UniProtKB/TrEMBL annotation:
It is found in: Periplasm. The keyword Magnesium does not apply. It comes from Cereibacter sphaeroides (strain ATCC 17023 / DSM 158 / JCM 6121 / CCUG 31486 / LMG 2827 / NBRC 12203 / NCIMB 8253 / ATH 2.4.1.) (Rhodobacter sphaeroides). Keywords: Periplasm, Signal. This is TRAP-T family transporter, DctP (Periplasmic binding) subunit.
Length: 325
């Protein structure tokens, strides 16, 4: 009887054990977006493939909804090895990796296809080396769509409409300078504070893509969305170099393969989410300005390019990005 009871208890304990208890290597991955968001699901797919390819030895536990902190904080924690992995916008790395700033230059990319061709080629490999120098191993480049302006005050149809308005931007110099060049006032703040700040009038609006505009609920307090697509900033999945160096070459290869296979999955989910989010916010009553002359907006960016594309190697990189087909 006692042996039977012990066996039953052991079996119950095994069933109740955490999903990652059997893993030899467990990586904690941070994301600011909610569960179900394309970037979160992309890393989840990476986790599934890593577990399959390693026969259950490597596990990735994804923490969405800023459970481990906002992007700036989690990037720093990943650099120091406190967090193992992070998914963050390239824009959040602008003040850490100088080359990352170049990808945040307004109107640099002509289309999402152009962006993918750049990131999946030799330029993407060069950027990975720049991140490694900052203790981050770039393993995947995800789609972040195009960012556009939204606000609570009025439709934005021309550059002059932005004058004096207060917009939240990511905590990055290039975004602050972009807004200044357009005559607006930039207010850097964490993503989680944007909704209440628009609602209370601390800021007039922000700028982001369709899925973020939707999932954050920002369309509820800022119903004017101008589809100017000023930024196409890729998303990065990076692993702490401290953690990476502790892995065997075989495990590193598993993670690289799993990450690479997750890219087309995330991009497909992104395209689907983008369409669904657009339909949702339009149905809710958001007013979308689609037809604008982008030329004055692009011309206003001249001082931004002059400030950040200074070194010959930066000028060469921007030129090669623009020439990529």
């Amino acid at each position: 009887m006692k042996k039977t009871m012990i066996a039953t208890l052991l079996a119950s304990a095994a069933l109740a054990a955490p999903a990652f208890a059997e893993c030899e290597v467990t990586l904690r991955s941070s994301d600011t977006h909610p569960d179900g968001y394309p970037t979160v699901e992309g890393v989840k797919f990476m986790a599934e493939r890593a577990k399959e390819l390693s026969n259950g030895r490597i596990c990735i536990e994804v923490f969405p909804s800023s459970q481990l902190g906002e992007e700036k904080d989690t990037i720093e924690q990943t650099q120091f090895g406190v967090i193992d992995m992070v998914r963050a916008s390239f824009g959040s790395f602008n003040d850490i990796v100088p080359e990352a700033q170049l990808l945040s230059l307004p109107y640099l990319f002509r289309s999402e296809e152009h962006l993918h061709n750049v990131m999946d080629g030799p330029i993407g490999d060069e950027l990975a080396k720049a991140f490694e120098a900052k203790d981050l191993i770039a393993v995947a480049y995800y789609d972040g769509g195009s960012r556009s302006f939204y606000n609570s005050q009025k439709p934005i149809t021309k550059v002059e409409d932005l004058k004096g308005m207060k917009f939240r931007v990511m905590q990055s110099d290039v975004f602050v300078d972009m807004m200044s060049a357009l005559g607006a006032n930039a207010t850097p703040m964490p993503y989680g504070e944007v909704y209440s700040s628009i609602q209370t009038g601390v800021i007039d609006g922000a700028e982001n893509n369709w899925p973020s505009y939707d999932s954050s609920g920002h369309f509820e307090v800022a119903k004017y969305y101008t589809l100017d697509q000023h930024l196409m900033v890729p998303e990065l999945v990076a692993i702490s170099k401290i953690k990476w160096d502790a892995l065997s070459p075989e495990d590193q290869q598993v993670l690289r393969q799993a990450a690479e296979e997750s890219e087309p999955v995330q991009r497909k989910l992104w395209a689907e989410q983008e369409k669904a989010s657009e339909e949702k916010v339009v149905a809710s009553g958001a007013e979308v300005v689609r037809e604008i002359d982008k030329t004055p907006f692009i011309e206003a960016m001249a001082p931004v390019y002059e400030k950040y594309v200074t070194k010959p190697e930066y000028q060469d990189l921007v030129k090669r990005i623009q020439e990529t087909q």
